[in-house]
Write a structure and sequence with these properties.
By secondary structure, the chain is an alpha/beta fold. It is 41% helix and 20% strand. The protein has a seven-stranded mixed β-sheet with strand order 3-2-1-4-5-7-6, sandwiched between helices. Helix 6 runs antiparallel to helix 7. The longest helix has 17 residues. It starts with 19 loop residues before the first helix and ends with a strand.
Length: 227
């Protein structure tokens, strides 16, 4: 049945040989969609609740699958307005995407084998990255995120459901996004998670007391505190 199981087909922009001009175009389109879906809002709303305001500064954060670093940039500005210092390291396996991030600490590496010592960062985050992985890779990704985090891990991804699929289909077609971007956007929903699925993966990865919640029907959020 449609959407009953996670799709396993690779997305067009998951392949490493896409030319830089296509990668740049992809991130321009992604920025437009992210503005519509206020992609930074769950981090702004829930990270302070998870940590407590008194523990929100200073923080070192690792963003897995950071792409062009736009999430970290937006969150650092938002935090600074509240008097908090949030320092981001952007990690992505796609070097052309990282080159779009400009200044800052950018690391080209896989989220499945992080090149950092244990407890290297206060917080590890990922936004709409985890669905690019198969289930075994997700477990490895979660174990690595847990390993390098000191205080907490906070992951958001897409909730696989027909309403989100239809809404995104309308947005992508009415605004005439490029064909490959439309294809990947809809496939991303098909590769997304149900709450029970992501909870089972977190449990299998050995996360104690991990919690998965549905967020306004469009996202699933996985978070855990270590201390």
């Amino acid at each position: 049945m449609f959407l009953s199981r996670r799709a396993t087909q690779a997305e067009y922009f998951d392949w490493p040989d896409r030319p830089p001009v296509e990668i740049a175009g992809f991130h321009r389109s992604l920025a437009r969609v992210n503005r519509c879906f206020v992609f930074a809002e769950p981090f702004q709303r829930l990270l302070p609740k998870l940590l407590g305001n008194q523990h929100c500064s200073p923080l070192s954060l690792l963003d897995l699958g950071a792409g062009n670093g736009s999430l970290g940039s937006q969150l650092a500005i938002w935090a600074a307005k509240r008097g908090w210092e949030w320092r981001f390291t952007n990690l992505d396996v796609n070097l052309p995407a990282l080159r779009l991030a400009g200044t800052g600490r950018n690391v080209a590496a896989s989220a499945l084998a992080l090149p950092f010592r244990d407890a290297s960062f206060d917080i590890v985050i990922a936004s709409q990255m985890t669905h690019h992985l198969n289930d075994e890779e997700v477990r490895r990704h979660l174990r690595e995120a847990w390993r390098v985090a000191r205080a907490a891990v906070f992951i958001t991804d897409l909730h696989r459901n027909a309403a989100l699929y239809l809404l995104l289909w309308l947005l992508l077609h009415l605004r005439r996004y490029p064909e490959h971007f439309r294809h990947d956007g809809l496939l991303s929903v098909r590769r997304g998670f149900r709450v029970r699925e992501l909870q089972a993966l977190a449990d299998a990865a050995g996360w104690p007391a991990a919690r998965v919640r549905l967020y306004f029907g469009a996202r699933v959020i996985l978070h855990v505190r270590k201390c």
